[in-house]
C-alpha cells in the first residue's frame, strides 16, 4: 500500500497551511508518491504567475516535489481512467471538467493506494476510490 497526494495538499504544505508532520502522521512509514498530474498542475500555475517572487517560490516547490518517487502513467492507467470516466458518465455525472482528478484517481486505484486530498467533493463520487480527507487550517 502507498499514498498518492492531491496537488492541493502539496500547495498547502508549501504555504505553511499544513505541516509535513501532519501528512506523516497519516502516512506513517508507508510510501508517498508523486504523479505527473501533480507536476502538470503546478507547472500550469507557475506559467500563469505574473509575480516574480511567487513564481520563484513555486519553482522551488516544484524542485522539491521532484525528489519524491514518481508514478508512471501506463497503458493500464489509461484503461482505469477510461473505465472511471465511463462509470461517471453513465451515472449522469460529468467527467469533462475533472480530467486531472480522474488521472489521480486512476493511478490511485490502479495501484491499490489511498489518495490524500483536502477536496472531498472532487473524489467522493468516484466508484471504488480509496481516499482520505485531510483538513487544512
Protein architecture, described:
With 137 residues, the protein is of the alpha/beta class. It has one domain: 5'-nuclease (Rossmann fold, 3-Layer(aba) Sandwich). Helices cover 55% and strands 9% of the residues. The chain is built from seven helices and four strands. It has helices spanning 7-14, 20-27, 36-48, 52-65, 75-90, 99-111, 120-123; strands at residues 3-5, 32-33, 114-117, 131-133. A four-stranded parallel sheet has the order 2-1-3-4. Helix 3 (36-48) runs antiparallel to helix 4 and helix 5 packs across helix 6. The protein is globular, with a radius of gyration of 15 Å. It starts with a strand and ends with a strand. The model has no long low-confidence stretch (mean pLDDT 92).
CATH 2nd-level architecture: 3-Layer(aba) Sandwich
| Model regions low in confidence, pLDDT < 50 over at least 5 residues | none
Order of helices and strands: EHHEHHHHEHE
Give the strand order of the largest sheet, numbering strands 1, 2, ... along the chain.
2-1-3-4
Morphology: globular
Strand content: 5-15%
The CA-CA distance between the termini, in Å, is 27 Å
> In the residues, how many domains can be counted?
1
Helix and strand composition category: alpha/beta
The CATH homologous superfamily: 5'-nuclease
Biggest β-sheet description = 4 strands, parallel
Provide the helix percentage.
55-70%
**Average predicted local confidence, pLDDT:** 92
Fill in the CATH topology: Rossmann fold
Under CATH at level 1, the class stands as Alpha Beta
Amino acid at each position: 500500500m502507498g499514498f498518492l497526494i492531491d496537488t492541493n495538499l502539496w500547495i498547502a504544505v508549501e504555504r505553511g497551511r499544513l505541516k509535513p508532520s501532519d501528512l506523516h502522521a497519516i502516512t506513517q512509514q508507508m510510501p508517498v508518491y508523486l504523479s505527473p498530474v501533480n507536476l502538470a498542475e503546478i507547472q500550469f500555475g507557475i506559467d500563469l504567475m505574473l509575480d516574480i517572487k511567487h513564481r520563484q517560490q513555486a519553482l522551488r516547490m516544484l524542485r522539491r516535489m521532484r525528489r519524491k518517487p514518481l508514478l508512471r502513467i501506463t497503458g493500464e492507467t489509461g484503461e482505469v481512467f477510461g473505465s472511471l470516466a465511463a462509470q461517471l458518465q453513465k451515472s449522469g455525472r460529468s467527467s469533462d471538467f475533472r480530467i486531472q482528478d480522474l488521472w489521480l484517481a486512476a493511478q490511485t486505484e490502479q495501484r491499490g493506494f489511498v489518495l490524500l486530498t483536502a477536496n472531498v467533493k472532487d473524489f467522493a463520487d468516484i466508484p471504488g476510490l480509496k481516499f482520505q480527507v485531510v483538513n487544512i487550517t
